[in-house]
Write a structure and sequence with these properties.
Layout lengths: L8 H11 L12 H19 L10 E2 L5 H7 L4 H12 L4 E3 L4 E3 L5 H15 L14 H18 L8 H14 L3 H19 L10 H24 L5 H9 L7 H12 L6 E3 L2 E2 L1
Parallel strand pairs: 1-3
Antiparallel strand pairs: 2-3, 4-5
Helix pairs in contact: 2-5, 5-6, 6-9, 7-8, 8-9
């Protein structure tokens, strides 16, 4: 797996995302109400699949074409939180803000819609998926959110695959050779160090990282964790009751770090069904 020097990292991730779309799914929705209803259908399907009780009362979804989106963004407080949301928009990330009670759909495809739907399910399942965007303190919380968002999209679109540990090594090697895209290289190095922390239990330094690289690293690591959750769930090694218990633990709960370490330990026992995103066993 190699990366052409003229391809920006975020464009590369979006390209990979497009490769995993369900070809039978083609829609263009810009109306706020229709968009909310559409994501709501995924919310109800996912909730039924996991035997969870949710309602759609707090679901409100916007797209980049909706002028109301900018009103919602201006209302976000404090300023550092609004700046983080603006960065998420710039990076084409779909997200749900449980504090504000609305979500944003970055791309009109099945993976983004289903991931957003699961973020809403996550918020509805217990103490919510709310974070304070205090990084690097909230790095593991970002990974956790990304893991469940990926898991939700995989439930709806089983053809979706994620990057693997081997892909990270290959991409990092490619970027070192072309000596470009500092954000991408930093994100891959951060993901690698975090993975080594989890595997060895050592408190390795994560170094200083930009907000963009932290977001990208959390997306990579969340995808790998979400793939393992899906593997365990589909093979009935993880029961719906276990999923519910995990989701009910709020990200601000004092027990979250303990929960995260326990989940990582459990999930690492499950193999990824492929060695590389593009190479099946």
């Amino acid at each position: 797996l190699t990366l052409a020097p003229w391809i920006k990292w975020q464009d590369y991730l979006n390209f990979l995302n497009q490769q995993n779309l369900n070809n039978n799914w083609d829609w263009k929705v810009t109306d706020h109400k229709d968009l909310t209803d559409h994501v709501g259908q995924y919310v109800l399907w996912i909730a039924k699949e996991l035997k969870l009780k949710v309602n759609l009362n707090q679901l409100s979804v916007y797209s980049i074409n909706d002028h109301l989106l900018w009103d919602r963004i201006r209302e976000i407080r404090p300023l550092h939180r609004r700046q983080w949301v603006q960065l998420l928009l710039q990076q084409q990330r779909s997200f749900y803000l449980s504090k504000e009670g609305w979500g944003y759909l970055a791309l009109d495809n099945i993976n983004h819609a289903a991931a957003l739907a699961f973020q809403y399910v996550h918020a509805q399942s217990g103490l919510g998926s709310e974070i304070h965007f205090q990084l690097p303190k909230d790095f593991q919380k970002l990974i956790w959110i990304e893991a469940w968002a990926y898991f939700g999209s995989k439930l709806v679109n089983p053809k979706r695959n994620t990057e693997t540990f081997q892909d990270i090594l290959n991409l990092l090697s490619s970027l070192k050779k072309i000596k470009k895209d500092g954000t991408a290289r930093q994100a891959l190095q951060l993901a690698l160090r975090q993975k080594l922390r989890e595997k060895t239990g050592r408190n390795l330094s994560l170094g200083k990282n930009s907000r963009k690289s932290i977001l990208l690293a959390s997306q990579l690591l969340g995808g790998m964790l979400g793939e393992r959750i899906y593997y365990g769930f589909r093979r009935k090694k993880i029961k719906p009751q276990k999923v519910s218990a995990w989701l009910k633990t709020g990200l601000q709960d004092q027990k979250f770090n303990q929960l995260y370490r326990s989940a990582i330990g459990s999930m690492d026992r499950f193999p990824l069904p492929f060695q590389s995103k593009n190479d099946r066993f």
